[in-house]
Write a structure and sequence with these properties.
The protein is mainly beta. It is built from no helices and eleven strands.
Length: 122
């Protein structure tokens, strides 16, 4: 079973930047569709960005142009670079790994990191 360890959260001012990392163990990062989700207080978990095992990338509309997802195969790691952070980006961010034929976050077929808190505040 693949294991994910995500990190990189913290407190940042609006317009600031953070970078998350998700280290994959137990398998190759290229064997999975990798994604970042987030969950704000009182809200449902939502997809932020994903990179498919073949390399295709998509972003949620609310982060396009601000966030960048990337994968470093040699490090077995997926990154999420977040720039121009807004107050509404405050949430717990989770790394997710799904099998190639599964949509990221599919219940029962995905693995999750432990989550990392981001607080955007002035």
């Amino acid at each position: 079973q693949v294991q994910l360890v995500d990190s990189g959260g913290g407190l940042v001012q609006p317009a600031g930047s953070l970078r998350f990392s998700c280290v994959v163990s137990g398998s190759s990062v290229t064997s999975y569709n990798m994604a970042w989700f987030r969950q704000a207080p009182g809200k449902q978990r939502e997809l932020v960005a994903y990179i498919l095992n073949g390399g295709s990338i998509e972003y949620a509309t609310f982060v396009k142009g601000r966030f960048t997802i990337s994968r470093v195969n040699a490090e077995n790691t997926v990154y999420l670079q977040m720039n121009s952070l807004k107050l509404e980006d405050t949430a717990i961010y989770y790394c997710n790994a799904a099998p190639p034929l599964r949509t990221p976050g599919t219940p029962g077929f995905s693995s999750w990191g432990q989550g990392t808190q981001v607080t955007v505040s002035s």
